[in-house]
Amino acid sequence: MNQPEARRGSAAWALVITSVAGFMAALDNLVVTTALPSIREDLGGALHDLEWTVSAYTLTFAVLLMFGAALGDRFGRRRLFLTGLAVFTAASAGAALAPGIDALIAARAVQGVGAAIMMPLTLTLLTAAVPPAKRGMAFGIWGAVNGLAVAAGPLIGGSLTEHISWPWIFWLNVPLGLALLPLARLRLAESYGTGARLDIAGTLLASGGLFGIVYGLIRGPLDGWTSVTVLTALIAGAALIGGFVHHGIHNKAPMLPMRLFRSRAFSGINAASLLMFLGMFGSIFLLSQYLQGVLGYSPTQAGLRMLPWTGMPMLVAPIAGALSDRIGGRPVVAAGLALQAIGLAWFALVVTPDVSYAVQLPALVVSGIGMALYFAPPPTS
Predict the structure, then answer these.
(1) What does the pLDDT look like over 224-273, one tens digit per residue?
(2) For residue 134, what is the DSSP state?
(3) What ranges in 31-134 are assigned the alpha helix state H?
């Protein structure tokens, strides 16, 4: 095989491996939502415990994402990708075997750690393997596969829960992970970054601060917003986040340099991301409970009925991307946020214990279009 053919083969394998790994990590953001009532029935626990089965994953994933990328730059991207993939796969098996809700939450947190190490390195490894002229197409395929995971997450979770059992939403990751590990070891090339110093202090400050705030927000409705536990968690979390900001200003090599926020585009798109994901993930969590617990749909029926929201980006995102190229990213992102807000407000106005799905559908479609517009290329100026 000559060098160009070998390069094409390497690029194709890299695309397959990184796309499947990204699919696994993205799927676990939403696959659990339609399984939550069944998990609660089997393992017990209150609503706030169910919230932690979602939050434990997203919290560790979000906090350690940049740290995982930095570890890859320092110790080898392929090596850390394999480590993250192994942790994610093992934690998936642990979640499937969890004997109680606390064990499930712990396994979900470890899953988030594995995803945080693995996910940012998928794009780095893909970039290294694909020639510059082909990267746009490769990134498009990678993004489409991740979008499919988001769209299909509630439906896959509901179908597996209803027709087999809820642990299979986690068992699904195990054969995929075991198949990818040897492929990644053999087919991906090792690479390193600049070797910048790891920001341990920044990671600890961000982790502790976000945990305190999330814990306080989840416990607030149960213990009361003025309880000692909730106030301590919120104040300590805010103080640690303040320390993270101070660290980002004065440290020479922080995980997140605060000077980046001098850019209006950077600040704006991050604020928009915060608001979008707060609205999206919080609402999808509650929507799943509502469809099954109030309206009496099965897990599969609930997943199907959520598709107009979660699946809309697969249809609209390509149009939104072209529109963004034509008129700029800012108005497209702003329209997406507005439509998401309108859709959620619409749903809040029509929701009742006996509302028909036909009445809910327009709100779900509007929210889905808003999400699709938001996921168009972000503004660059």
Answers:
(1) 888 998 899 999 999 999 999 998 898 887 877 888 888 887 787 778 77
(2) G
(3) 36-43, 47-75, 77-96, 101-129
